[in-house]
């Protein structure tokens, strides 16, 4: 992503970095001083990179008030325009120490490192992301209600949101993101937006931008865009599926593609016989082997586990299959040069840099160790006997804590801080008595 405009084309520039929770943080500076200031980076207390979702420092944080500054150093690429905010540009930043050595809690740097490890092994990754999210409006009772009462692919849902969709897609196009599709998802008020695949950092930056843009543009229109995974009880929720392919240096040969096929696709074998390669199978095996640990990163909130339930379009167990949406890992039917794996575990509340880093790390481990996947499933994996994905954030964090591959690739300090933040979040949830509990237990005993 990028544009040819220099900072001087803007009045102001926002500097964005993404914390471990996936929250966009940063500041805004006059464009006239941006170039001078970017040399020094934009400083803040290191502990800010380790915040919980509630304001305040994490208890027992690694970086307390005594830890001094780190700096957000904007990327060398020119800022991109925030089309809906006239005169404002946006720059993505890496976090470093004041002496420019990498800061352990920078998720963007972690993704860069894992991408480099994969490239050192001879594979250039290409990733794509599908973003599902909920649009809500104010309800008469003072709360929120879905923006519409439509479902999957309803054309009139597009009609009702024409101005929103125009502004979303214009903003993405202006920022250099090639929008591939917008559609109404299965639930009232739920939309999905996709854009062209690319290099992992470019795509993670794209997701950070789109999330900032969606909420900001929705507010301008007097509605709310939410990336909370499951806003409604018992309804399909907001996934953030990742598509992955691996290429040679020249981006000419897709290492996942094969000329012969032994997979049974529901729509039948392709006439040209194309299928997936041994490298793709090793990557699938790596992703499945680490799915339990990846759940903590890909489903990082208490609410995420309302999404991973049987009877929905989200995965519940560790299985894979050709064009099989009941599994955690679908092999889409687009083969040949378009061969890719779709990892369906992540939801929209997750940090896109960490999700991609964890996905690449798991795939790389499968390839390096020539892991073999179990047999693919053609049935409904939700109804078959497969290992269940962790059912709570706490259980997923236990798997992440025990996983050496993810810790080595993402960096142990980063994974440790992530686990502390998320255990703190779970404890707060665990300490709160819910409406469901009162309704179920109050007059039962
Ligand atoms: N909303 C579903 C999820 O949470 C996915 C629906 C689809 O297959 O696009 O993953
Ligand atoms: Mg979808």
Automatic annotation (TrEMBL):
What residue stretches are annotated with the GS catalytic domain?
107-445
Region annotation (Disordered) maps to 367-387
Any one biological process term the GO annotation gives: glutamine biosynthetic process
- Asked whether the UniProt record includes Ligase among its keywords, one would answer yes
Q: Which InterPro entries match?
A: Gln_synt_N_sf, Gln_synth/guanido_kin_cat_dom, Gln_synth_cat_dom
Q: Which residues cross the membrane?
A: none
What keyword terms does UniProt attach to this protein? Ligase
Task: Return one GO MF term.
Answer: glutamine synthetase activity
Q: What family name appears in the similarity comment?
A: Belongs to the glutamine synthetase family.
This one is known as Glutamine synthetase
